Amino acid sequence: MYLLGCRMYVKCSRCHVALCLKEAQRCQSSAAPLEQADFLKGAPHRKHPGVTNLKTVRLPEQLQEAAQSVLKRAEVKSLTERAHKLSNFLWSRKRAIETSQLREKAILLEKKFLEQERDIHTDAIDHKLEARIRKRVLSELRRTTYNRTPLRYDEDLGLVYMAARLAGGYAAVLRALNEIKKRDPLFVPCSLLDFGSGLGTCTWASHTLWGDSLKEYVCVDSSGDMNTLAEQLLSGGSEVDNPVIKQVYFRQFLPVSPTVQFDLVIAAFSLSELATLDERLNVIFTLWRKTNSYLVLVENGTKDGHQILMEARDTILKREEEVKHDLRRPSMFAPCTHELPCPKLTKQPVVPCNFTQFYYSLALSRSQERQQEKFSYLIISRSAEEEAQKSEHWDMTRLIAKVHRRPRHVQCQLCCANGELKQLAVTAHRHGKDMYRCARSSDWGDLLPMFHAEDDTEHDETQ
Fold first, then answer.
1. What share of the chain is helix, strand, coil (3-state, %, to 5)?
2. Phi, psi of 236, deg, nearest 5
């Protein structure tokens, strides 16, 4: 920046020429919309590339009719009440405490009770002290330790699960997969592996998005009864061998070969069914080895569900396998916009990172209710698609809470590319008309571009 006569001049970094200060400011303000318009790729603001949310989801008509037929024929007693209880149970379910954590807790309790006893009995020698403390420790552990109840999915529980979770589970998986479909339109999967397939909701959701391009579906569930119910749903609610979706294969165990890969690997609401951390980590490694393009994990939007997904994230991104069959490195696709530690776990440990999707419930009576599914998800990619999307003009951020639209600004809570949480009031004046309109058109779970602030007068000053 320098003075010439009575006018102040500055070198514009975009045009690389000396301009009057007012002209330089006009140059900067006119260039910013060009960068923002480039992000839009010709789409209207309400359909900008970061919008991945879906409108209220309905089950495919054939799946809806098949489920109603199966439930009507089964005549399950108190079905609505039992379905409600099962939904509440699954939502409130927690991980079992690990043996190492239980041992640490027992040691702390033993020290605490020993100090209490010594304060009471300062001089006397108590020969029964050790037995008494052990009894108190065991009693306290029983009282305060969460007792995880394993579920055995037989035919009866499978029918109740169908009434309780078919529509909500389908909506959550469809929303997660839709992000891949929207952001990577060139990805057309030919094969799918569904671990913990249950009623086959992942198969239906994948078929909704990619149709007949999928030539092979491998559904793995340890429950033979759940596999039978899933086959009935594919056959329109009957046992006739004429499935709506072809080439679906049901197994009770994962494929053995470590070199066989699938374009799309999904585990929805199944990692939380595994009792221990070691079991979950072994399954995560196995699923990642079988992933050719995308690994999709979905869990309940609870604190435990989020932490299970963060275990998987850290396992895949940070831990090295002893034998690598695929040398391509993993990269975060969604919902994280970075590979740094999750700021929700470090700064807001009580509040999980979760998202919502509206859906119409399975019509057990004449009417369908519009409900909300709250879920957490994780998508990890082997492809280099994300690297091509990086821009020097903006970073992608994730909206991690409800967007509040005010008359002249939009309140957004963001998880940023630098691994930080940010509360931002987006205005047209400060952030540009395009970003402001994108923010007004976005919702919880969408991506929002954070355009880089440039202050050329600061970096290009000369005397």
1. 45, 20, 35
2. 75, 20
